[in-house]
Amino acid sequence: MLLWKNDCMDPYRNMAAEEYLLMTAEEPCVMLWRNAPTVVIGKNQDARAEVDFAFAERHGIRVVRRLSGGGAVFHDEGNVNYTFIVPDGTALRFSAFAQPIIKALAGLGVPVECSGRNDLVAIPDRGKCSGTAECIYNRKSPDGSVQRMLLHHGTLLFAADISAMSGVLTPDAEKLSAKGIRSVKSRVVNLKSLLAAKYADMTAEAFKAYLEEFFQREGAVPRSFSPADLEAVESLAESKYRSEAWLFGTFAHGEKRSSRRFDFGLVAVCLCLKGRQIESLSFSGDFFGTADIEQLEKKLAGTELDAGPLEAALRRAELSCYIAGASASEIAGLILEAART
Fold first, then answer.
1. Burial of 12: CB neighbours in 10 Å, binned 0-12, 13-18, 19+
2. Which one, out of 52, 113, 128, 340, has a CA that is 20 to 30 A from the CA of 121?
């Protein structure tokens, strides 16, 4: 495994660095990195529904969309983020990638465990200290073949500004209620407050260095980005990750809308109808999948608004590739619910 050294604090470049490694890595790799104050939204989320943009502008907080699904997270200099990239990934593997992080934190006297779909929580109080996300990236070769790359990344709350996090994130109330909590602030915990006494003075910078040393002890070989690498990363950051087209996408078009929280995440649908058929629709939410949701949206265009045809179309489209854990009846029911609004 390679350990890519990255001291950049620019969120757009860091998102681009992940994608650059997805495009070029030939062996498994890990990267530790930090961002200036930023909200990072999931690939399938509607930015306007997740972020208080007025608060973000007043406080100098940037907003960027990532490649993976899942929910919005807050980064600042008190966070340390990690990225794993594995060639030939075929399925999402949250628990497998959690293990080295659990081991590293145990070395600082902080016991944590996996919780729910994609969180790490401190034991015994269950405060969330890490949220993770994954995706499959289809890398095209010059000969036309496709290699499936697996990306797993997460954020570790070390000494984050919880008040800023609470102010800029606007999760739906149903999500908080489902987890038995009143607010973002009451749900999370900074790892610094949990460290063993001999590490009490550790800074975020030292925590990042500790994690890099941990991975080197586990056999990772350090590697630095070359000038050519950095030029390619900056080009991708400018053309994609800083653009409004990537940030805002085409979510929430259509006059009819419904949303529901399932065990596999929040799913919202917006519909445009033509008689009793779907003219177009868009999905958004914090769900995960291994294929781009836009493909499912195209496959459902023209489908009759009836449970039978909808469920059949969703099964033919292999729904689980787009919304992991969902059943055809659940998503058909959500679409019909939107059509009735």
1. buried
2. 52
Whole-angstrom distance, CA of residue 293 vs CA of residue 271: 15
Is residue 251 pLDDT above 90, yes or no? no
Predicted TM-score (pTM) of the model is: 0.89
Q: Structural domain of residue 285, as residue ranges?
A: 256-339
321 and 233 assigned to the same domain: no
| Judgement on whether residues 279 and 135 belong to the same structural domain of the protein | no
Q: What SS3 state is found at 222?
A: strand
Last residue of a domain, one of 192, 216, 248: 248
| DSSP letter, residue 179 | T
Q: Could you tell me the two tokens for 259?
A: 């949303």
pLDDT band at 178 (very low <50, low <70, confident <90, very high): very low
* 75/253 Cα distance (integer angstroms): 29
Note whether 194 and 124 are same-domain residues.
Answer: yes
Residue 319 CA to residue 327 CA, distance in Å, equals 7
Our count of domains for the chain comes to: 2
Which residues 6+ apart lie within 8 Å of 261 measured at CB? 172, 174, 175, 178, 267
What is the chain's mean pLDDT, rounded? 91
Sign of the CA dihedral 211, 212, 217, 218?
A: positive
Last residue of a domain, one of 227, 248, 269: 248
Say if CB 206 and CB 158 are below 8 A apart: no
**191 lies in the same domain as 297:** no
